[in-house]
Design a protein that fits this description.
disordered N terminus, globular, alpha/beta, 8 strands
């Protein structure tokens, strides 16, 4: 597809479409803090932890990634705890573009999806034509989902139309693959910016909005996730379209993950407590969740060496 052949004027809404209501910073932070203190016990905790596993995009995005490492990670994705069939498979494996074909072949028939980062991850600093080419390639190699990054420089400069148009064109290049739009909230500076970026991404056709690449600090936080969830709720009421949310970066413990589930339930309800509408992007979270599940089952913690290293 030639990006220049698509007229931005046919797609870009009027500037007023990107307007938002200001975010109450104190209110958001207090609500996120209050919800994070909810206690989940026994059976509900086990069910919640298994749900977290099923919502996880097991991720490896390192320069030393190899076909062998990705194939091994795919085995863990399909069978997170060998010998315990009650533990579900994860939602997806997330990899760099060069390793999509390896993941797709290894996961064939499993139901675990292949997600690929694209559009010059993590910076987003490439011409649009090259971003589109990268997206078309990962889709051709079998990616079920594409995780793109927005142009934060354009956004912070106020060029919302450019951000919108890039997302819209990437969405078109995705074809049947789902598009997750990474806002990189740690670089957006304010909650108002997070809310506006969320709205632009949803208007442009995102299937999911995602907090972070995991390469910038801060990454996912509960208040930021709450702002995004509320933006999704309002977009649903306004447009009738349900958008997913993915939190990524810095979520390492089972306790943290359960706090996010509470946030989702209280903001969007049970309909979002599914991998089709909520995801965790993580590389180290899964092992801690598995350790907690084993502790609930046996009454004691297992040594970390009992679990494969991702």
């Amino acid at each position: 597809m030639n990006p220049e052949s698509i007229s931005p004027a046919l797609r870009i809404p009027s500037p007023g479409a990107f307007a938002i209501r200001p975010v109450d910073r104190v209110g958001v932070e207090e609500r996120a803090s209050t919800l994070a203190k909810r206690s989940i016990k026994k059976g509900a905790k086990v069910a919640g932890l298994k749900l977290v596993v099923s919502m996880t995009d097991l991720t490896t995005l390192e320069g030393k990634d190899s076909p062998g490492k990705v194939a091994a990670l795919c085995q863990k994705a399909m069978h997170p705890l060998v010998g315990d069939a009650s533990i579900p498979s994860v939602a997806a494996i997330c990899v760099y573009p060069n390793l999509v074909a390896v993941a797709k072949k290894t996961l064939e028939g499993s139901g675990v999806k292949v997600a690929a980062v694209a559009t010059s991850f993590p910076s987003g600093q490439l011409p649009l034509a090259l971003k589109i080419t990268e997206v078309e390639r990962v889709v051709a190699d079998g990616a079920d989902e594409v995780d793109m990054v927005i142009d934060r420089g354009a956004f912070l400069a106020g060029d919302y139309a450019k951000v919108y148009d890039e997302i819209a064109q990437v969405k078109e290049a995705c074809g049947d693959a789902h598009l997750k739009v990474i806002l990189e909230t740690g670089e957006l500076e304010t909650y108002d910016n997070v809310r506006r970026a969320s709205r632009i991404a949803m208007l442009a056709g995102a299937d999911f909005i995602k907090t972070s690449t995991g390469k910038v600090t801060p990454a996912a936080t509960l208040p930021v996730a709450l702002v995004m969830l509320e933006a999704v709720r309002d977009f649903l009421h306004e447009n009738g379209r349900a958008i997913g949310v993915k939190v990524a970066g810095g979520i390492r413990t089972a306790k943290d993950s359960l706090a996010y589930l509470v946030l989702v339930k209280e903001t969007l309800g049970d309909e979002w407590l599914t991998a089709d509408r909520f995801r965790f992007g993580a590389s180290t979270l899964l092992n801690d969740v598995l350790m907690q599940l084993e502790k609930e089952r046996t009454g004691r913690y297992q040594n970390e060496d009992y679990f494969t290293k991702d």
